[in-house]
């Protein structure tokens, strides 16, 4: 994924490439001056600095060159290149073929064990030794001199890189000026390989997570999804498509049946960007999505796609705060009970429960509340002597302190939408081990008349139907009237 700063860096790379190309056409370089160039410098390695410093060079020409009798110069110190003691570079160990790299290690590297970069640098890359003296605290100028002691490449690096991150040349054929260099994006650098900061010829990228509107997303309205696409390559992009998937089966594998839509991407010049907007509709819940570009010839698959979670809000009071134990018996914990008053299972992952002083984020991905099911969120797993099912009790890392005199509670879903809120006071009922129960879940929790102290003999109903809740079907006999005495044979009307 690319940040805005990195996208600006890529655009700057394109500008360097264009300016350098024009400069080369107007002022062709002298023969021998642009054959070999320094392309990467590891002056602040992670680990042993006496063995892990190195310099990478690259043959930018179309013919082979020999490094025999070449020199490296750092702050006036000249160091001759040497072959490694166990050189396996064949009959022509000094030869660098066209379009290939070579790595020059600090000489102590060859006697170290284990040799850290042996598993990193490709076997085909020629490697050499030299007495390097690269400072990681002060800026230094590094020069490569040919067999005639002529400077053919020069670079002044700036100290201060994080440990293990080299300086890389953006365009190997470009100038050695600081504008054509960046810190490597790869820990331990890319010795003997294409630099991580060098743009490809053909490369479309999705540089950031798509945006959507409105936010939070609603299940009963269209959602506009906006996907950014950026041409980070050096050539025009054409005949490309954008496909957006929704992982409907939750296996994190995006397949054809899970495609939401596919749209063409307009042709983009190097450095150009576009946002592609499309209206979609998703049900309530957390949705795992992927946006991917399909570009024939794209040379970097790592930036072709991005995945993210898009939460769509739930209806108000689909889950409610149903019971509150704010003043438990001595030794018992405080707790709250949630109830799914809706018609579908709800995953409570990333939901937030809080009061005026603290917020709890539910981080357990298995907290799926089925319709008509309860969940007790408690400060401790044992609630005391009440009749309850321990499997319905969830203990978060932090539980908000419920004030005995009164408090305001709220419940938000993963989209940040307010699903339920409650305002309670001690005068509404519940104290000394008796909970405060909600009468009807479909009525607002802020209505005082919708709450009362538990009537259960134990004092609470955690994980069970509230004692004050009315039944769905319930006829009651409220008055009994007997008929008056009548005389025999008298008709009763």
Labels describing this entry:
493 residues; 32% strand; 6-stranded mixed β-sheet; 2 helices; mainly beta
Structural topology:
Blueprint: H1 4-26, E1 36-42, H2 49-52, E2 54-59, E3 65-66, E4 71-74, E5 77-80, E6 95-96, E7 101-106, E8 127-130, E9 140-145, E10 151-157, E11 167-169, E12 181-183, E13 204-205, E14 211-213, E15 223-231, E16 240-246, E17 259-265, E18 273-280, E19 285-294, E20 305-312, E21 319-325, E22 335-340, E23 346-347, E24 352-354, E25 359-361, E26 368-369, E27 374-378, E28 393-394, E29 406-412, E30 418-425, E31 436-438, E32 451-453
Describe this structure in words.
The chain has helices at 4-26, 49-52, and strands spanning 36-42, 54-59, 65-66, 71-74, 77-80, 95-96, 101-106, 127-130, 140-145, 151-157, 167-169, 181-183, 204-205, 211-213, 223-231, 240-246, 259-265, 273-280, 285-294, 305-312, 319-325, 335-340, 346-347, 352-354, 359-361, 368-369, 374-378, 393-394, 406-412, 418-425, 436-438, 451-453. With 493 residues, the chain is mainly beta. The chain has a 6-stranded mixed β-sheet with strand order 8-7-2-1-11-12. Strands 28-27-22-21-31-32 form a 6-stranded mixed β-sheet, with no helix packed on it. A 4-stranded antiparallel β-sheet has the order 5-4-9-10, with no helix packed on it. The longest helix is centred in the N-terminal third of the chain and has 23 residues, at 4-26. The N and C termini lie far apart (87 Å).
Briefly characterize the structure:
The protein has 2 helices and 32 strands. The chain has 493 residues and is mainly beta. Residues 1-14 and 21-33 have low confidence and may be disordered.
């Amino acid at each position: 994924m690319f940040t805005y700063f990195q996208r600006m860096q890529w655009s700057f790379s394109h500008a360097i490439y264009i300016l350098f190309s024009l400069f080369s056409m107007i002022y062709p370089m002298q023969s021998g001056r642009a054959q070999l160039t320094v392309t990467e410098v590891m002056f602040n390695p992670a680990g042993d600095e006496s063995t892990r410093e190195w310099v990478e060079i690259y043959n930018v020409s179309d013919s082979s060159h020999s490094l025999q009798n070449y020199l490296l110069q750092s702050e006036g110190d000249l160091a001759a290149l040497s072959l490694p003691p166990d050189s396996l570079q064949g009959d022509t160990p000094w030869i660098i073929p066209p379009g290939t790299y070579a790595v020059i290690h600090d000489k102590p590297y060859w006697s170290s064990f284990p040799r850290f970069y042996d598993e990193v640098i490709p076997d085909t890359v020629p490697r050499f030794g030299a007495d390097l003296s690269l400072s990681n605290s002060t800026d230094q100028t590094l020069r490569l001199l040919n067999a005639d002691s002529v400077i053919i490449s020069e670079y002044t690096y700036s100290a201060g890189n994080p440990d293990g991150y080299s300086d890389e040349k953006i365009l190997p054929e470009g100038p050695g000026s600081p504008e054509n260099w960046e810190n490597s994006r790869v820990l331990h650098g890319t010795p003997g390989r294409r630099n991580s900061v060098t743009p490809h010829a053909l490369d479309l990228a999705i540089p950031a997570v798509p945006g959507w509107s409105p936010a939070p997303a609603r299940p009963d309205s269209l959602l506009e999804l906006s996907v950014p696409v950026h041409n980070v390559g050096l050539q025009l992009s054409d005949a490309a498509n954008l496909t957006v998937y929704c992982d409907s089966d939750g296996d994190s594998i995006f397949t054809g049946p899970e495609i939401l839509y596919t749209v063409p991407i307009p042709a983009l010049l190097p450095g150009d960007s576009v946002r592609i907007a499309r209206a979609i509709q998703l049900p309530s819940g957390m949705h795992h999505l992927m946006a991917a570009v399909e570009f024939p010839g794209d040379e970097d698959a790592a930036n072709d796609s991005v995945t993210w979670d898009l939460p769509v809000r739930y209806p108000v009071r689909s889950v409610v705060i149903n019971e509150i134990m704010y003043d438990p018996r001595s030794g018992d914990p405080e707790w709250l009970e949630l109830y799914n008053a809706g018609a579908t299972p709800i995953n409570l992952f990333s939901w937030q429960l809080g009061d005026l002083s603290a917020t709890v984020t539910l981080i357990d991905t298995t907290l799926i509340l089925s319709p008509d099911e309860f969940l007790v969120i408690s400060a401790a797993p044992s609630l005391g002597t009440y009749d309850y099912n321990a499997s319905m009790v969830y203990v978060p890392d932090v539980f908000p302190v419920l004030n005995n005199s009164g408090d305001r509670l709220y419940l938000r879903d993963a989209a940040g939408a307010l699903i339920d809120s409650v305002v309670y006071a001690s005068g509404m009922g519940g104290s000394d081990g008796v909970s405060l129960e909600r009468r009807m879940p479909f009525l607002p929790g802020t209505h005082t008349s919708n709450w009362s102290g538990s009537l259960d003999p134990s004092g609470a109903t955690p994980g069970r139907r509230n004692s004050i809740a009315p039944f769905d079907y319930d006829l009651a006999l409220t008055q009994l009237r007997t008929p008056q005495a009548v005389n025999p044979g008298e008709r009763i009307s």
